[in-house]
Automatic annotation (TrEMBL):
Residues 1-102 form the N-acetyltransferase domain. PROSITE patterns: GNAT. Pfam families: Acetyltransf_7. The lineage of its organism: Eukaryota, Metazoa, Ecdysozoa, Arthropoda, Crustacea. GO terms for molecular function: acyltransferase activity, transferring groups other than amino-acyl groups. It comes from the Eukaryota. Signal peptide: none annotated. It comes from Cherax quadricarinatus (Australian red claw crayfish). This is N-acetyltransferase domain-containing protein.
Length: 129
């Protein structure tokens, strides 16, 4: 249910003052990163993030934001210079939100990551893996 997704994302973002602290007014929200399982492990997720960040820089966005619902997305984003600013373990709000965490494969922690955008830091970190 998309309503639950939006409520979880609102909880994840609650209390963060990242954008006020960074004094930005243009935020590139990278909402969903999906690669079909037949194409896993080919670097397509990384390429999607890279191209999205490049487009954000070209369009004048100051910060990119991602709500990562799995550890793979968080790892890809971290490799591209994003940093975690908030996290929420869904098991702590499952009853309140009506979430069956048994249906979630893998990690139940969702993370909010951000990256300040400019031409120098829009490329992935070659030291990360």
């Amino acid at each position: 249910d998309m309503c639950v997704v939006y409520r979880v994302m609102a909880m994840l973002s609650a209390g963060t003052r990242v954008f006020q602290e960074l004094k930005v007014h243009r935020v590139l929200d990278l909402f969903t990163l999906c690669v079909h399982q037949d194409y896993d492990g080919r670097g397509l997720g990384s390429k999607l993030i890279e191209k999205s960040v490049e487009a954000g820089v070209e369009e004048g966005y100051q910060v990119a934001s991602v709500h990562a619902t799995n550890s793979i997305t968080a790892k890809i984003c971290t490799r591209h210079g994003f940093r975690i600013v908030s996290s929420l373990d869904l098991t702590t709000v499952a009853d309140q939100m009506g979430i069956d965490t048994d249906l979630i494969p893998g990690d139940t922690e969702v993370k909010m990551l951000i990256k300040e955008l400019d031409s120098e830091n829009s490329k992935p970190d070659p030291q990360s893996s």
